[in-house]
Specification:
The chain is α+β, with helices and mostly antiparallel strands. Helices cover 28% and strands 22% of the residues. The strands form 7 sheets. It has a 9-stranded antiparallel beta sheet with strand order 2-5-6-7-8-15-12-11-10. A 6-stranded antiparallel beta sheet has the order 1-3-4-9-14-13, with no helix packed on it. Strands 16-25-26-30-27-28 form a 6-stranded mixed beta sheet. α5 packs across α18 and α7 crosses α8. One of its GO terms (biological process) is carbohydrate metabolic process. Its EC number is 3.2.1.-. One of its GO terms (molecular function) is peptide-N4-(N-acetyl-beta-glucosaminyl)asparagine amidase activity.
C-alpha cells in the first residue's frame, strides 16, 4: 500500500490551511495536480502550459500574467520574476494567439497603465497554484505587499486582493491593448465596470473578418468605489491601451477588495447573466469548493498505486491538462459562431488543435469525459454548417494551421465507439466534402504553413491527390506529409461510410487510403515525396515539422502494409531501430508519438515495452520543467496518461489500443457506465519493464492489443513483469489492407 508521504502531508496543509480559505473536503487527487508543470524551460524542454484556474473544459481560463502573451508567447512563464496582471485568457497553446481576453491588476501609489509600469516582483515561495485556486504575494515596494487570490467557474472568476493597511488601493482593468479599439464603461452606482475586447491575435490566419466578434466582460465589486474612471478611451486611433480603474479609500487594517468577473462572447448582458448563474453570492470559499469538487469528481476516477510522489503528481497533472480542451464555447443554450459571425441556439466547443489531439487526446476523452463527446462532435458539424468546413484548429474560427482534415478521425472514432448524440447524416456530408472537394484556388496556391488571408485550406493539394494518387512537392507545400495524412483521413472516411451502410463509398475510400504506398521508396526504405511528373523529389522535400524518418510510419491505419513494403519483420524492425538510434524520434512533436508502439506490429513487442518506458522517463517529470514540447491542448499529457496505463491508441479511429509497458503496479479508470477498467502489473519496477505474461479477465492474452469494448466492459488487464525481454505476444500480426 502507498503510504502518505511527508510531501503529501505538507501539500494538504498548504491546500487546506494556509490559503485563507477553509475547505471541508478531504485530500484527494486534485491535491496532487501541479499546474506549474510545463511552465518552465530546461533540460527536458518547455511545455508552454500555464497554471490555469478553471473547471474542466472551462470557457475562460484565469492565470497570473508574467509577460504579454501573443502568438508564440503565453501569459505565464515560471522563469519570470514579475507579475503585470491576472488575465482571463482563451489562448490554448503557445503557437496560437489569444482572443477576447481581459486583464486585472491590483495597484497602490500612482496610476500605472502599462505592463512595465504596473508589474510587481514575486517569488515562487509566495505562490500557491492549484486547479481550483491561485494565490501570490507581490512586493509593492516600501516593505508593502499585495496578496492576490483567484478561483473560477466555467465563464467567470472570483478574485480577492488584500492590500496593506493605511494605503489607498486600486484595481486596474485593461480592456484592450494598443492597436485594438476596445471599450470600457464605469457604473459607480452599481460598483460595476463593463467592456469588451475585439482583439483576435490570429485573425490573419483565417478567411473571415468577423466584424461582430468581441470578448465581453463585466466586473462587479463588493465594495463601493472611492474613485473610478476610464483611460485611453479618448484616443480614437487606439494608439494606447484602453481600460478603467476603481480606487478605494485606505483602511486602518489590511483591506480586502473582492470582485467577480463574468465573460461572454455574446454580449455584456450575457456576461452579467453568466455571473448571476455561476457566482450569485459573495462567497469566495463556496466558489472555490465548487471548483475543487468538479476537479475531484473527474480526477478521482483514476486510481493509482505503486507511484512515487513525483510520479503521482505527473499522472494527475497530465489528467488536468487533458481535461482543459476542447473548451466550452456556448453560454446557457446559445453560442457565438466565429464561422458566420452570428449567435445561434445550441452547444459549442472550440480550441481543438486537431492535428495534435486526434492522436490520443480525443481518444482519452471518450473514456474520461464521454459525456462531452457528442457535444464536441456536434460543434464541429455546426462549424461545417456555418462556415462550409469542419475546422483544423478553431481559435475560435478558421486558422489554416497544420495539414489534413483530421476532424474526419474524430467523427470516425465517435461513430466507431457508439456515440449517437450527433447528426450522422450531417457528419457524412462533412467528411465526404473534406475528402472530395478541393479548397478554393487549390491549384494556384502553395498552401504554405500559416499563410495569411487565404481561403479555408481543408486538404490543400486535393486536386492533385485525386488525379495522381499523391500530392506533388512542386505544386503544394508540405506535399509529402499531406499525402500520408490524407491517406489516413481517407481510411477514416471509409469507416464512416461503412457504419452508415454506404458500401460503395466504403470500398472507394478504403482503396484510396492506400495512396500512402505511392510514396514508399524501396531504394532507401523510407517514404519520399514525388514531383508532378512522377519523379522522386529530394529526400527533404515536402515534410511538415519533420523528415522522412518522422513520417515514414505516419499512416496510422496501414502499419501492416508498411511492414510488407519494407520486406517483412526483420527489415521493418531494423528500420525502426535506425529511427531511434539516429535520434529521429522527436517526442516533443506529435508525429513521433506512436513510434514507440510500432514494434508491436512486427513481432518484437519487448522493444515497445522498453522504448515507451524510456520515453516517459526522459520526456516527463513532476516539475515546472516537466514536458518536452508544447502540450498542444492535452496531447502530450494524453500520451503520458495512456502510457502509464500500458496502452496507446496508435490508430485512434480503430478502437484498438496497442499494449506498451504499464508504469505502475496498479491503475484503474472508473468509467461513466459504472464499471471499472483495471490494469495490474505484478513485480513492476523501473527495472522490470518487460511483460512476461498477460491475462484479460483471467484468460491468457497473447496479442499486444485490446479493444475499446474490453475497456468499457470493465475488464481487468493483468501483467506479470520482469527484467528481461520475453517473447510474449511476438507471434501476433495485423492484417494488411488489400
Amino acid at each position: 500500500m502507498h503510504r502518505p508521504s511527508i510531501l503529501r502531508t505538507l501539500m494538504c496543509l498548504v491546500v487546506l490551511g494556509s490559503t485563507a480559505s477553509t475547505l471541508a473536503a478531504p485530500p484527494g487527487p486534485v491535491d496532487w495536480v501541479n499546474p506549474l508543470i510545463g511552465t518552465a524551460s530546461g533540460k527536458i524542454g518547455y511545455g508552454g502550459t500555464m497554471p490555469f484556474v478553471t473547471p474542466p473544459f472551462g470557457m475562460t481560463d484565469w492565470t497570473p500574467q508574467t509577460r504579454q502573451n501573443k502568438i508564440s508567447v503565453v501569459s505565464y512563464n515560471y522563469d519570470d520574476k514579475t507579475i503585470s496582471g491576472f488575465i482571463g485568457t482563451h489562448q490554448p497553446a503557445i503557437w496560437m494567439g489569444d482572443y477576447g481576453y481581459v486583464t486585472l491588476m491590483p495597484e497602490i501609489g500612482d496610476l500605472k497603465t502599462t505592463p512595465d509600469e504596473r508589474k510587481l516582483p514575486f517569488t515562487h515561495a509566495d505562490e500557491i497554484a492549484h486547479p481550483d485556486f491561485y494565490s501570490v504575494r507581490m512586493d509593492a515596494g516600501g516593505g508593502k505587499q499585495i496578496r492576490s487570490e483567484m478561483t473560477a467557474t466555467e465563464r467567470c472568476s472570483y478574485m480577492r486582493f488584500t492590500f496593506p493597511a493605511n494605503t489607498p488601493s486600486r484595481i486596474l482593468i485593461e480592456a484592450s491593448r494598443t492597436g485594438h479599439a476596445g471599450s470600457v464603461h464605469v457604473d459607480a452606482a452599481n460598483h460595476e465596470i463593463t467592456g469588451y475586447n475585439p482583439d483576435r491575435m490570429d485573425a490573419h490566419l483565417g478567411p473571415a473578418a468577423l466584424k461582430n466578434f468581441k470578448g465581453y466582460f463585466v466586473v462587479q465589486f463588493r465594495q463601493a468605489f472611492q474613485k473610478a474612471n476610464t483611460y485611453g478611451m479618448d484616443d480614437a486611433q487606439a494608439s494606447h491601451a484602453r481600460g478603467a480603474y476603481a480606487g478605494f479609500a485606505p483602511s486602518t487594517g489590511k483591506q480586502v477588495i473582492e470582485l467577480r468577473v463574468g465573460t461572454s462572447f455574446i454580449s455584456i448582458e450575457q456576461a452579467r447573466e453568466n455571473l448571476k448563474k455561476e457566482i450569485p453570492e459573495w462567497n469566495f470559499e463556496a466558489v472555490r469548493q465548487a471548483l475543487r469538487d468538479k476537479w475531484q469528481a473527474k480526477l478521482d476516477r483514476i486510481g493509482l498505486q505503486g507511484a512515487s510522489d513525483e510520479e503521482r503528481g505527473t499522472v494527475y497533472t497530465a489528467a488536468y491538462h487533458a481535461l482543459l480542451y476542447p473548451r466550452i464555447f456556448s453560454e446557457y443554450g446559445r453560442y457565438y459562431s466565429a464561422f458566420d459571425d452570428t449567435v445561434h441556439q445550441g452547444e459549442s466547443y472550440t480550441a481543438y488543435s486537431i492535428w495534435d489531439t486526434f492522436r490520443a487526446e480525443n481518444s482519452l476523452l471518450t473514456l474520461l469525459a464521454p459525456e462531452r463527446v457528442d457535444g464536441m462532435i456536434t460543434a464541429l458539424l455546426q462549424n461545417y454548417r456555418e462556415g462550409g468546413w469542419m475546422p483544423k484548429w478553431p481559435n475560435p474560427g478558421y486558422t489554416n494551421i497544420m495539414i489534413g482534415t483530421h476532424a474526419d478521425s474524430l467523427v470516425a472514432e465517435a461513430i466507431r465507439k457508439g456515440f449517437h448524440g450527433f447528426d450522422r447524416d450531417l457528419a457524412w456530408k462533412a467528411v465526404y466534402k473534406d475528402a472530395m472537394t478541393p479548397p478554393d484556388g487549390d491549384t494556384t496556391r502553395r498552401w504554405a504553413d500559416r499563410e495569411p488571408h487565404t481561403p479555408y485550406e481543408a486538404r490543400g493539394g486535393l486536386t492533385y491527390y485525386k488525379e495522381l494518387g499523391y500530392i506533388p512537392t512542386d505544386k503544394t507545400a508540405e506535399a509529402s506529409s499531406r499525402t500520408l495524412e490524407d491517406s489516413y483521413d481517407d481510411w477514416c472516411v471509409a469507416q464512416v461510410a461503412k457504419a452508415l451502410g454506404k458500401e460503395k463509398d466504403y470500398q472507394f475510400f478504403l482503396h484510396r487510403s492506400l495512396n500512402d504506398r505511392h510514396l514508399y521508396n524501396p531504394a532507401d526504405g523510407l517514404m519520399r515525396g514525388k514531383t508532378s511528373d512522377g519523379k522522386w523529389a529530394a529526400a527533404d522535400a515536402g515534410w511538415t515539422e519533420g523528415t522522412a524518418w518522422v513520417y515514414t510510419w505516419a499512416p496510422l491505419h496501414d502499419e501492416a502494409g508498411i511492414l510488407e513494403l519494407m520486406g517483412g519483420d526483420a527489415a521493418y524492425n531494423a528500420k525502426l531501430d535506425q529511427h531511434f538510434a539516429g535520434g529521429h524520434n522527436v517526442h516533443s512533436n506529435e508525429p513521433s508519438h506512436h513510434y514507440g508502439y510500432l514494434y508491436d506490429f512486427s513481432g518484437e513487442p519487448w522493444k515497445t515495452q522498453a522504448k515507451v518506458r524510456e520515453i516517459a522517463l526522459a520526456e516527463y517529470a513532476g516539475q515546472p520543467v516537466g514536458l518536452d514540447g508544447d502540450d498542444d491542448c492535452g496531447q502530450m499529457s494524453a500520451w503520458y496518461l495512456f502510457t502509464a496505463f500500458g496502452i496507446y491508441p496508435v490508430n485512434p479511429a480503430s478502437g484498438d489500443y496497442m499494449i506498451g509497458s504499464p508504469m505502475f503496479s496498479r491503475m484503474s479508470l472508473r468509467l461513466a457506465n459504472g464499471k471499472q477498467f483495471t490494469v495490474i502489473a505484478d513485480h513492476n519496477s523501473s527495472a522490470n519493464v518487460y511483460i512476461q505474461s498477460a491475462t484479460l479477465n483471467g484468460k491468457p492474452l497473447t496479442k499486444p492489443v485490446i479493444r475499446y469494448e474490453d475497456i468499457m466492459a470493465g475488464s481487468t488487464l493483468h501483467f506479470v513483469m520482469g527484467p528481461e525481454p520475453s517473447h510474449w505476444a511476438a507471434n501476433w500480426r495485423a492484417q494488411a489492407i488489400q
